[in-house]
Amino acid sequence: MSRLIRHDATGPALIEIGGQTVAVCQCGLSRNKPFCDGSHSKTKGEEAGKIYIYDENRNRVSIEDMFPTPKEKLHPK
Q1: Phi and psi at residue 74, in whole multiples of 5°?
Q2: According to a count of CB atoms within 10 Å of the terminal CB, is the N or C end of the chain lower?
């Protein structure tokens, strides 16, 4: 079963705990959740208003590329 969860953040939340700063993942791509592992760097270049899917290797694909509009289906680029 797959589940899509919306994440808009492109960086971690920094939280002070016992005098230390802890980076908590907000982008959803970290393999060390709930902690940030720097995977948010993959979100650079995302365009506002677009929806993206990242595979298990953190490769990005735009929903529009996966499911083109009917006009694009009739007249490919």
Answers
A1: -80, -35
A2: N
